[in-house]
């Protein structure tokens, strides 16, 4: 039987950052981060692709005024890994400026530069 191009198969997302960074001081938070947020929610990529989840996550962080944080930079790096191009991210941020606020997006471009500009390249 041929698979419909619109059908997606869930792929388990494995994350250990919670346990690696907070496992000793906040084991329950680490478990929720690694097992529930990533192990369950992000793993429902048959419902919403990792690429789409990355775009939603970045947009939310920027809208909350967290565009120039480690979390946003990390999520932009993940977005890049998940197929969001530099041009697409620039367009997402440009569009978002009108909804999330110019200063929030201006700050987010700092994270974008760190995530999308190669180490040692002209900035």
UniProtKB/TrEMBL annotation:
The lineage of its organism: Bacteria, Bacillati, Bacillota, Negativicutes, Veillonellales. Residues 27-111 form the Carboxymuconolactone decarboxylase-like domain. Pfam families: CMD. GO terms for molecular function: peroxiredoxin activity. This is Carboxymuconolactone decarboxylase family protein. SUPFAM superfamilies: AhpD-like (SSF69118).
């Amino acid at each position: 039987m041929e698979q419909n191009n619109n059908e997606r198969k869930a792929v388990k997302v494995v994350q250990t950052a919670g346990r690696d960074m907070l496992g000793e001081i906040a084991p329950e938070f680490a478990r929720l981060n690694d097992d529930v947020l990533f192990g369950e929610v992000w793993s429902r990529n048959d419902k919403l692709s990792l690429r789409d989840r990355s775009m939603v996550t970045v947009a939310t962080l920027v809208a909350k005024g967290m565009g120039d944080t480690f979390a946003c930079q990390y999520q932009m790096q993940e977005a890049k890994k998940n197929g969001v191009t530099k041009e697409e991210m620039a367009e997402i941020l440009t569009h978002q400026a009108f909804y999330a606020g110019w200063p929030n997006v201006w700050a987010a471009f700092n994270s974008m530069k760190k995530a999308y500009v190669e180490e040692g390249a002209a900035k």
